[in-house]
Design a protein that fits this description.
Blueprint (H helix, E strand, L loop, with lengths): L2 H14 L16 H5 L18 E11 L13 H14 L4 E7 L3 E9 L1
C-alpha cells in the first residue's frame, strides 16, 4: 500500500470518526504470559502518524512479519513463530514499549515498537 493510499484511508477514517486524530495508542503487554502461550493473532492496532497518540513515538524497531500463517523459511517476512520469539525478547528488554501495525499488506505486516514521550 503506497503512502497516498494510506493518506486517503486516514482521511476517510477521520471523516467517519471525527476527533480521533492523535488518539490511537499502541498495545502494551501487561506480562509475558499471554504472549508466550497464545497462538492467536497479535492484538496490535493499526497506527499511522496521524492517528498515533501524542504521548507515543515510534522507535527504530520494526519487524516485517507474515500475516498469512503460511510463511516458509527463506522468505523476507518473519514467520509468526519466529516473530513471537523476537517479540518476547524485545518485551523483556523494553517492558514499557507498545506495538502497532505501521503497515499492512495482503500477506505481510510491519510491526513497529513505540515508546512513551
Amino acid at each position: 500500500m503506497n503512502r497516498e493510499r494510506i493518506a486517503q484511508l486516514e482521511d476517510e477514517y477521520l471523516d467517519e470518526h471525527p476527533g480521533t486524530a492523535g488518539t490511537v495508542e499502541p498495545y502494551v503487554y501487561d506480562d509475558l504470559d499471554g504472549l508466550e502461550t497464545d497462538e492467536g493473532p497479535f492484538p496490535f492496532p493499526i497506527i499511522t502518524n496521524v492517528l498515533l497518540s501524542d504521548e507515543w513515538e515510534p522507535t527504530d524497531q520494526t519487524w516485517f512479519v507474515d500475516s498469512s500463517g503460511f510463511a516458509s523459511a527463506g522468505e523476507p517476512a518473519l514467520p509468526q513463530d519466529r516473530f513471537r520469539k523476537k517479540l518476547i525478547a524485545y518485551v523483556r528488554e523494553h517492558p514499557d514499549h507498545g506495538f502497532g501495525l505501521s503497515g499492512v499488506g495482503q500477506f505481510q505486516v510491519y510491526v513497529t515498537a513505540y515508546r512513551r514521550v
